[in-house]
Amino acid sequence: MRNLSFIVLFLLSIFSIHHFVDASLRVKYLPGFEGPLPFELETGYVSIGESGDVELFYYFVKSERNPENDPLMIWLTGGPGCSSICGLLFANGPLAFKGDEYNGTVPPLELTSFSWTKVANILYVESPAGSGYSYARTRRAFETSDIKQMHQIDQFLRSWFVDHPEFISNPFYVGGDSYSGKIVPGVVQQTSLGNEKGLTPLINLQGYVLGNPVTDKNMESNYRISFAHGMGLISDELFESLERSCGGKFFNVDPSNKRCSNNLQSYDHCMSEIYAEQILLRNCEVDYVLADTPNIRTDGRRELKEFSGNDSSSLPPPSCFTYKYFLSAFWANDENVRRALGVKTGVGKWNRCNSQNIPYTFEINNAFPYHVNNISSFSFSFFEIGDHDSMVPFSSTQAWIRALNYSIVDDWRAWMMSSNQVAGYTRTYANKMTFATIKAIISKPFLSCLGGGHTAEYNPDQCSLVFRRWIDGKPL
What is d(CA 243, CA 346) in angstroms, rounded to the nearest whole number? Predict the structure, then answer.
């Protein structure tokens, strides 16, 4: 009887682990891409939460170099509530939309030259529930927050590693951009604490990577004014008046301070036609939401009128940078695409960013304390900053990094593309903490702006180059 009890308990312990991990799917073909995928793509769901009521969807792309030994990185898209397709198909993944004008069929995909998966395994996770194809079974499970995300992602990782033990020894990094600047350092701390407590499997955590990270909303708001002035977007007179009337504080302004409020209205007017994420690009419509009742032609092709709030005459031309967001909504909601990816039946329509529909509690006003804890514990941290982003100005990130008070081991200097063109500027601190800007450059053949924006997608080539050098331990 004692042996039987042991067997029952052993089986229950196995069940308790694998209850949280759904079967994964090896994806060999994707609608929109011709032929088999020339890289290994896996998708799946991991059940997490108190009762396994949260199902987080992921895409896992193996490194094209040496997946057994190359680093493994989890990539978290910001929002909160934006799909990890933003990373996979826009910023640093192996595929991207061709950008052809939409013709009613599945938007075509092509291989990229800038994929970070050429040197690293990347696990793109849709978090929290409600992002992309992730979902929750109950209303309570659907409710989330900054802190809850951190715990759920740590739980996700340990469950995922149980199913993928071959990657446990790989150097592991946490990466993300935009709002995930609040989440990534918390995940790093949570995972480190879990390792210290003996949670298994132990994760070989080495450091983290952030692009234009939201860190302290007050600081970022304050630095936007000086950024706009430095970029010639507001006049000397308005800048000086703002400084005097608002006292250098431009967030949560006292409404009784009429002069400050009026100056901020003038600032808003000057910035109203500027595309905040990359000030050199034209200001186009940013997002598109599929209507609840699609208008399908008899030949099965979706019409442009399928998009609520837009008619075909108001949609941006393919020359708009955000046109790919429009394409992604058609692609990700195509039934053949969802079937190929293994999306569960009953999951609602896909939106690139679903922030407004997720019951989310914003708890972290300032992520700086997490950085203080993490950077003293890990050998590698990397901050990649587009220098033409007015949402999270490079100067605000510089300010809080400077406040960490780490000694400089390689002072401010240019880092170069292979063409001997300055690609940005960098500084390295003690403990191998690296700060690098991504400078906007002009491509001669097309005379087009190529960089320096809010996320890696605005200049994927430069971002890829600096990431590859950093992850391989080479100087920029």
Answer: 53
